[in-house]
Design brief:
With 105 residues, this protein is an alpha+beta fold. It contains two helices and four strands. 26% of the residues lie in helices and 20% in strands. The protein has a four-stranded mixed β-sheet, with helices on one face. The N and C termini lie far apart (34 Å).
């Protein structure tokens, strides 16, 4: 078995929906953002084995700070407002390897 990770970076978008009225990522555009990121990574040819994987996740327990996503293996947590924020995370972190400080939580 190889010690090399299957994906270079693995991104999880919280898509949790809370029924009790508390803040949740699902009510803050998380689904559209996840779909945008997945499409953008495919357009850039960065998806697949050894590259980048964009995934949906259930509750990541940080909805109050959301919407949120987390990038592994480094474990960087981000919030975002729109597709421009997602594009910046893709360009600066996923491609460039640097943390987007203004969106980090």
């Amino acid at each position: 078995m190889s010690d090399t990770p299957y994906y270079e970076k693995h991104v999880f978008f919280c898509l949790n929906h809370r029924e009790d009225g508390r803040p949740c990522c699902a009510d803050r555009g998380a689904q559209a953002a996840q779909e945008h990121a997945k499409k953008k990574i495919k357009q850039l040819g960065l998806n697949g084995h050894g590259k980048i994987r964009i995934n949906k996740a259930g509750c990541l327990d940080r909805c109050e700070e959301g919407p949120v996503l987390v990038v592994y293996p480094q474990g960087t947590w981000y919030t975002f407002v729109d597709t421009q924020d997602i594009d910046e995370i893709i360009e600066v972190d996923l491609v460039g390897g640097k943390v987007v400080e203004r969106l980090k939580i």
